[in-house]
Amino acid sequence: KAIKLDPGHGGALAFLGMLQAKTNRIDLALPNLEKADKLAPNVPWIMDLLAAVLAMFGRLREMIDLCERILKIDPNFAGTLGRLSSGYYLEGYPVRAYEVGKHLVDLTPDDAEGYGKIAAALVMQGRIDMALEAFGASVARDAVGNQSTRCNYVFTMHYSDQLTPETIFQAHKSFGQDFAMAKVGDLSRYGPYLNDPDPDRRLRIGYLSPDFRVHSVSAFIEPILTYHNRNVVEVFTYHVSTRVDGMTTRFQTLADTMRLCGAKSDEEIAEQIRADRIDILVDLAGHTGENRLLVMARKPAPIQVTYLGYPGTTGLPTVDYRFTDNWCDPEGKTDQWHTEELIRLPTGFLAFQPSSAPALTPPPSVANGYVTFGCFNNLPKVTPTTMRLWAAVLKAVPTARLVVKNRSFLEEATRNAVRATLIETGVDPDRLDLLEWIDGRRDHLVAYHQIDIALDTYPYTGTTTTCEAMWMGVPVVTLAGEWHTSRVGVSLLSQVGTPEYIASDADEYVRIAADLASDVDRLTHLRTALRVMMLGSPLFDYAGLARNFEAAYRAMWHHWLGVEEPDGDPSPDV
Fold it and tell me: How many Å apart are CA 178 and CA 304, to the nearest integer?
């Protein structure tokens, strides 16, 4: 009414945009808020609403610029402080994110948001113990039941080299039972499932993820979707992020049906999945960013599975199974740390599809006369334990250098802090190179030309980085731990055929790295052999892995129907 009376009223138009954003109509909200900002310039609350919607569209640079303008007008505008901290975090500037988050904490010390922002920034800096403390402070002050903070909290536990698997499991279990299920309420209100109970019909499989876009998850799920037998399964994908790109378009061609659900609520997505009569719903995110675990908590499909994007349990009693393999989760060794039943795929649980295949070059040690160790893993994985391992390796190989590449090194303050910590741990500063993030997957892969041997992190080992290193002819040394988080390297190296580079303790890790460094002929051979070995490994048997998934899905379906398998066992074996 106000807009009809005065079409040029910026405040009224902004209020309309706010209502549209709150009801997930962001495509309508954006033009209205942009117009409102022009009609009523330099009004912080209007600018902040526009910044929020820009963030929903993934237009982070514009959002950051707008937030910085707002804070020049009002340095204490709390909503903008939280938004700007998130923007800096997502753009790879964790020290800036921390400073803005700290300002918010100082301004509103009894509010949860600021503690969550500084916790996220601390994670990106690799300061895990401090991050967990800040997440705990955020959860303690949370009066509205913020799911994101709780997911970030339990996810961050996987990075810690201080916490036991049992402690981490109990935190996830508490999330599932005490938070998620309490938030969702009684599931009986949804009524019975209407799925056709035919045991042998084509199954409807739904994949739920915020990462059907340019993301590391896409390199692993794309080949499975490509090679699914469409006579056996009908594939639905639910993209639950508002961020879309060329890969999203690619995934649309790989699904029989793709639903773009980023602007929808958890309840709306669950209703859509029920309406689609999905037989088996597969979560690909776990507790990672933009997850929709509260969709899984609503149990919109009779059978629910978690896979790929997360190294542990969801903690949800409504998720029935988790896909893994016997290397990551040895039979009888890790089951007690999951609320799901573990389904161990026989040849490995991953398929890797590299983004490109840059030409291979001789190991740099041939020209340099010394070996270069390297790690391109995320900074939170570079724990004190990891740093001590690296320092010991460099001590054992006195002529070697260490190259560490990370997105957070865009920021000089982060780079200097990591350098100082590595030096304090015992790394010689004259033998250390810190590389900034490289845009573009091909150029990122080419950066592996600079290293001879990749040193894995602990306890949270690499997945994408391990595959990429081997793809570029760089052998990886990994340390096997107790459970999935610290055993993915075991799975990948075993499948490719280099189990001799798997260490059982710190001393063996150092010995393996030093032995490799002393054998330039072996490094030269591996530079070309590793890619061939990968191509012949289960990691590249896309059709075989797709068949394993389909066999598991059929067994799960039969189990849910109460149909016995040929061996007389109704449990879903693969």
Answer: 20
**Please, are residues 553 and 280 in contact by the beta-carbon 8 Å criterion?**
yes
Cα–Cα distance between 6 and 281 in angstroms, integer?
49
Please tell me the predicted confidence (pLDDT) of residue 570.
45
Pairing of strands 372-375, 502-503: unpaired
pTM attached to this predicted model: 0.94
Strand 280-283 with 303-306, pairing = parallel
CA dist., res. 177 & res. 184, Å (int): 10
User: How do 432-435 and 453-455 pair as beta strands?
Assistant: unpaired
CB contact set of 438 (below 8 Å; sequence gap of 6+): 405, 444, 447
Q: pLDDT tens digits for 50-73? A: 999 999 888 999 999 999 999 999
Q: How far apart are CA 402 and CA 322, in angstroms?
A: 37
| Cα atoms in the 13 Å half-sphere on the side-chain side of 411 | 21
**How far, in Å, CA of 309 to CA of 303, rounded?**
19
> How would you class 135 by CB atoms within 10 Å of its CB: exposed for 0-12, middle for 13-18, buried for 19 or more?
buried
Cα distances (Å, whole numbers) of residue 451 to 303, 428, 437: 45, 18, 16
Q: HSE on the CB side for 318, CA within 13 Å? A: 25
How far apart are the C-alpha atoms of 574 and 554, rounded to whole Å?
10
Cα→Cα distances 291→86, 390, 410, 510, 563, Å: 17, 34, 27, 37, 33
Q: Is the dihedral of CA 40, 41, 42, 48 positive or negative?
A: positive
DSSP states along 116-159? HHHHHHHHHTT-HHHHHHHHHHHHHH-SS--HHHHHHHHHHHTT
Structural domains in the chain, CATH included, are 2-173 (1.25.40.10), 197-351+545-561 (3.40.50.11380), 364-538 (3.40.50.2000)
